[in-house]
Specification:
Helix content: 40-55%
Strand content: 5-15%
Oligomer: single chain
Radius of gyration: 47 Å
Order of helices and strands: HHHHEEEEEHHHHHHHEHE
Distance between the termini: 85 Å
Largest sheet: 3 strands, mixed
Strand order of the largest sheet: 1-5-2
Number of domains: 2
Number of helices: 12
Number of strands: 7
């Protein structure tokens, strides 16, 4: 792992070469990658599929922001009496009868009430009440938005629903996502702790995990809508054909872009910081290779100047070569009668003398005991 001084020196070199600080270049890559990745083929395909599977007519603009379920007993927004009945029964079954259904330009839901926030007499945030907003006359979409307002555990645990919506809203917001993505703007050094190294090594996974609660909330609302469509509305299968592609858009346009941008930004930063190190390694390896070649050339020159040493044969071959290259005549192989023959170590492996019988002198020459010379009696085998 590099030291902090090495990283600072490398940052100065990169800033001088690029004209900008490497962290600024990485930030631009992250922001641009997140924006461009919303246009990747998976995102476009998910959006087109969700748009193609939507049913129902558009809510008229004159009733945007107004209740479309009932207004003095009359139906507004293009919803039929049967559709209003299905939505009412769904709200009653989920315990959210006080949640109004409004018309709007984009379908969404406000799951919890938000109080008014004032600072020094100035209103920063207005009071917001729970509501579900429908942009078309599709009953499954309306049930999905109402599913977001459904309390967890049927409201048996006070504050649980508010805490859950606050948690998944913050975890998927830029306040959490951007600091996690920024962990890849510089590699850790030897002085950083284990948390910093873990955040750098697993930044894409952490970004994906931060968006996971939002996906779980959308899946929870979709589950409520499928149950309501099966019990009160047009049927679970018909609702799934419309809601499943819409759920896929949260994965393709909400989860994938920041994760892919983090991966690309990390690859860019690693390439910038390792470029100089790779060049240095190439120079070092080339120098070592030159030293190895010089050493081999020196060994070859020394070998050419020095004559090779003679090879000493082993065993019987050594005795034969010694006799062939000796100036002295070889000794006879046969032994005179009544004489003792001194056995050589390479012949018998035993030092000492061995007595030779008087009537066996003809057979002292062991060369006569070969198959080409005939039998041991010395009589040639004619015709064989």
């Amino acid at each position: 792992m590099p030291t902090r001084e090495e990283l600072e020196r490398k940052e100065d070199e990169l800033e001088e070469a690029l004209g900008y600080h490497p962290a600024f270049v990485g930030s631009a890559a992250l922001a641009g990658g997140e924006a461009i990745n919303t246009m990747h083929p998976a995102s476009i395909a998910a959006q087109l599929l969700a748009k193609a599977t939507r049913v129902g007519d558009k809510i008229p603009a004159k009733v945007h922001g107004k209740r479309i379920d009932t207004v003095r007993g009359r139906v507004r927004g293009g919803l039929s009496a049967e559709q209003i009945r299905a939505l009412r029964e769904f709200r009653k079954a989920k315990g959210i009868e006080d949640v109004p259904i409004l018309g709007g330009r984009v379908a969404h839901a406000i799951p919890v009430d938000a109080p008014e926030v004032k600072i020094k007499g100035r209103t920063l945030l207005r009071e917001v009440k729970r509501r579900a907003v429908m942009d078309t006359t599709s009953v499954p979409v309306g049930m999905h938005e109402l599913g977001h307002t459904t309390p967890l555990l049927r409201g048996k645990v006070p504050g649980l629903t508010t805490a859950w919506h606050t948690f998944h809203g913050l975890s998927s917001s830029p306040l959490v996502r951007w600091p996690l993505m920024a962990q890849v703007l510089a590699p850790p050094d030897d002085e950083d702790g284990a948390v910093r190294r873990f955040a750098y090594d697993h930044a894409p996974e952490l970004v994906a995990a931060s968006y996971l609660p939002r996906v779980l909330e959308e899946a929870r609302a979709t589950g409520h809508a499928l149950h309501g469509a099966h019990k009160f509305g047009p049927g679970a299968l018909r609702a799934a054909k419309e809601l499943a592609p819409a759920l896929g858009t949260y994965l393709a346009t909400g989860l994938l872009p920041p994760v892919l941008a983090t991966i690309l930004g990390k690859k860019l930063i690693e390439h910038l910081y390792r470029k100089g190190e790779d060049e240095g390694q190439e120079k070092t390896s080339s120098g070592l290779l030159a030293m190895v070649r010089l050493h081999h050339l020196k060994q070859a020159a020394d070998f050419a100047q020095t004559p090779p040493k003679p090879i000493k044969p082993q065993g019987a071959l050594r005795n034969s070569l010694a006799v062939a290259y000796s100036s002295k005549p070889p000794k006879p192989v046969t032994t005179p009668m009544k004489a003792l023959r001194s056995s050589q170590p390479h012949e018998t492996g035993v030092k000492g003398s061995m007595p030779i019988a008087e009537d066996k002198r003809f057979h002292n020459d062991m060369r006569l005991a070969t198959m080409g010379r005939g039998a041991r009696t010395g009589v040639p085998s004619i015709g064989r």
